[in-house]
Amino acid sequence: MSGDLEHELAAYLWLIISPILLIAGICGNFLSLVVLASRPFRKSSAAFGLSTLAVVDSGVLFVSLLRHWVFYLSGDKIDVRTLFGSYWWCNLHVFLTYYLNQLSSWTLVLVTVERAVSVIAPLMVRSRFTRGRTVCAWFVISGLIFSINVHFFWTVEYEEEAVFQSFVGDGAGNGSSGGAGNGGGDVYYDGDDVRLIATAAATVATDSQRQCYFNRKYAYFTNVLWPWIDFVLCVALPFLVIAFSNLAMAYCVWKTMKIRSAKPYDTRYSQKMSLGFI
C-alpha cells in the first residue's frame, strides 16, 4: 500500500515539476545565449564557457528530464528510448544521458577554475585563459568523456519481446478469451518467461514489448563498476574541484579585505591592489 502511494506521489511530482524545470531551464539558457552572443562578450573566454554550459544543460533537460516526463505523462507506457524501435536510437539515448550529465559537470568545473584564477591571480588570467585555450581545453575534456562513455554502443542492447495475453480454457478445448483454444489452461507473461498452468494451453501473442537494457554479458561492469565510475566523474571529482576553487576564492577575498581594513590609508598598497584588480 505504501509502495503504491510512493509511486503515485513520485508520478505527480514528475508531472508537475518537470514542465516547470523544462520551460524555466530552456528559456533561461536561451536568454543567456542571447546576452553572451552580444558584442561585449563575444570574444571572452568566460562567455564561451557559459554559452557552452547553457547548451549542454539544455541538452540534459531534453534528453533526461523530457524522457521521464513523457514516461509518467503516458502512465508508464511510453519510453522515449524505445519509441522509434531502433537499436541505434536506444544506444544513442543512453549514451547521451550519461555523456551530457558528465560534460555539464566538467564544463562548470572549467568555468569555475577560470573564475578562481581571475580572483586569485587576476594578471595571469588574461595570458593563461585565452579564448583559444579555453576552447581547446573544453574539446579535450569532451573528447575524454566521450571515450569513457563510448562503451554504451555495445554494452546496451535493444530487443522486442512478445507479450502474451492470458488465455483460460475449460479443459475441453474451449477458450474464454480471444482466439481458438487448444486445450484447458492458462498462459501468462511475467517479464522473464512464459509459464504454463495446467496441462495444455494456447499461447496468444497480442503485442510486443520493446526493451532497452544493459547487455547481460557486461553485467558486472554495468551493475557494479559503472555506477561508481559515473558517480566519480559526474559528482565527486567536480564537487571537490568546485568546492576547493570556491574556498580558495573566499579565502583570497577575505584576506584582501582583512589587509585593506588593517591599512586603510596605505596609498602604495591601495595602488597595488587597484592594479591587481584591473
3D structure, described in words:
By secondary structure, this protein is mainly alpha-helical. It folds into two domains: 2-157 and 217-277, Up-down Bundle (Rhopdopsin 7-helix transmembrane proteins), CATH 1.20.1070.10; 159-212, no CATH class. Helix content is 66%, strand content 10%. It contains eight helices and four strands. It has helices spanning 2-36, 45-73, 87-120, 122-128, 131-149, 152-155, 219-262, 267-277, and strands at 156-165, 186-189, 194-197, 204-214. Strands 1-4 form a two-stranded antiparallel ribbon. A hairpin with a 4-residue loop joins strand 2 (186-189) and strand 3. The protein starts with a helix and ends with a helix. Mean pLDDT is 79; it is low at 164-207 and 273-278.
What distinguishing features does this structure have?
278 residues, Rhopdopsin 7-helix transmembrane proteins, 2 domains, two-stranded antiparallel ribbon, 8 helices, 10% strand, G-protein coupled receptors family 1 profile domain-containing protein, G protein-coupled receptor activity
